[in-house]
């Protein structure tokens, strides 16, 4: 097959996979000292004692919060930990799920995003 001049090969137009799925290791997420976690019969709720803000956690949110208490505070470590803990997740969706939970925690002041020096 002859490719006309100026037409890139098929592989050149195909989206390439990312070279790394790792997130910046220098960015950590640290739970605020003012947040209390309460486990009820059918829900786990975070409450900020200084603002009174509360959030009922999803199962993924509960896993992420638990791992934050265990010093897994980078996105990579949280994703890897979640992948090891449960077989019920689509692996390709884990980074987005973890980031969504972390963003929710940060917006409510439950977690602080910290950049290491």
Low-confidence stretches: 16-22
Any idea what the shape is? globular
What is the number of independent domains?
A: 1
CATH superfamily: Winged helix-like DNA-binding domain superfamily/Winged helix DNA-binding domain
Read across the widest sheet, the strand sequence of neighbours is: 2-3-4
CATH class type = Mainly Alpha
Q: Count the DSSP helices.
A: 4
Major sheet attributes: 3 strands, antiparallel
| Sheet/helix structural class | alpha+beta
Order of helices and strands: HEEEEHHHE
Gyration radius (Cα, Å) is: 20 Å
Span of the ends, CA to CA: 54 Å
- CATH A-level architecture: Orthogonal Bundle
Task: Give an account of the 3D structure.
- The protein has 117 residues and is α+β, with helices and mostly antiparallel strands.
- The protein has a single domain (29-110), classed as Orthogonal Bundle (Arc Repressor Mutant, subunit A).
- It is built from four helices and five strands; from the N terminus they run H-E-E-E-E-H-H-H-E.
- It has helices at residues 10-13, 59-69, 75-85, 94-108; strands spanning 27-31, 35-39, 44-48, 54-56, 111-115.
- Strand 2 and strand 3 form a beta hairpin.
């Amino acid at each position: 097959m002859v490719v006309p001049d100026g037409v890139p090969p098929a592989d050149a137009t195909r989206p390439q996979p990312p070279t790394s799925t790792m997130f910046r290791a220098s960015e950590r997420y640290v739970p605020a000292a003012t947040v209390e976690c309460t486990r009820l019969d059918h829900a786990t709720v975070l409450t900020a004692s200084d603002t009174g803000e509360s959030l009922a956690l999803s199962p993924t949110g509960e896993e992420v919060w638990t791992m934050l208490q265990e010093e897994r505070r980078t996105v990579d470590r949280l994703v890897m930990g979640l992948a090891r803990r449960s077989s019920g997740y689509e692996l390709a969706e884990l980074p987005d799920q973890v980031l969504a939970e972390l963003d929710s925690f940060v917006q409510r002041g439950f977690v602080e995003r910290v950049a290491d020096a």
